[in-house]
Amino acid sequence: MNVSPDNCQKAQIPMAQVLRHAGTCLTQLSEKILDLEHVLWGAHTPLDEHTVPADALQSIDFIKQASDDLAALLDRLGDVAPLSLTVSEIDVIAPMKLEALRAVVGAAASRLNNVSQPKKQEGVDLF
């Protein structure tokens, strides 16, 4: 669904699409968590510094597993949700703070890949 700013207030999108796209967001988050876990696990520290505690890595692993399960749940809910069930796009995405997630949840599937591979940026964005 391609929605322009002019008609975004009135745009109705299928709940199934919202659920599937939210599942995709969680899958992408899970991939980032796994990347972070690998970086932490492989980080070399000087001998006089503490290493990352195993508890922290287990917590990260739990977060990854939970996000994987939630992504799968949302995908399955999206598969069984009737296409006639729609929601207001602006009501769904307005409360979201991260623009990339807003774009994924409110975007058409054809635009999904553009958001999942963001442009390389210099520096760090603060939230």
Task: Describe the 3D structure.
- The chain contains 5 helices and 2 strands; from the N terminus they run βααβααα.
- α1 packs antiparallel against α2 (54-80).
- The two termini are 28 Å apart.
- The longest helix is centred in the N-terminal third of the chain and has 28 residues, at 15-42.
- The relative contact order is 0.20.
- With 127 residues, it is mostly helical.
- A two-stranded antiparallel ribbon has the order 1-2.
Shape: elongated
Query: How far apart lie the N and C ends?
Result: 28 Å
Following the backbone from N to C, one meets helices and strands in this order, namely EHHEHHH
Unreliable spans: 1-7, 108-120
> How is the biggest beta sheet arranged?
2 strands, antiparallel
Estimate the mean pLDDT confidence.
76
Instruction: Bin the strand percentage.
Output: under 5%
- What strand order characterises the main sheet? 1-2
In total, how many beta strands? 2
Helix coverage percent: 55-70%
Number of helices: 5
The SS-based structural class is mainly alpha
Computed over alpha carbons, the radius of gyration is 18 Å
Write a concise keyword list for the protein shown above.
127 residues, mainly alpha, two-stranded antiparallel sheet, 5 helices, 2 strands, 60% helix
Task: Write a short abstract of this structure.
The protein is mainly alpha-helical and 127 residues long. It has 5 helices and 2 strands.
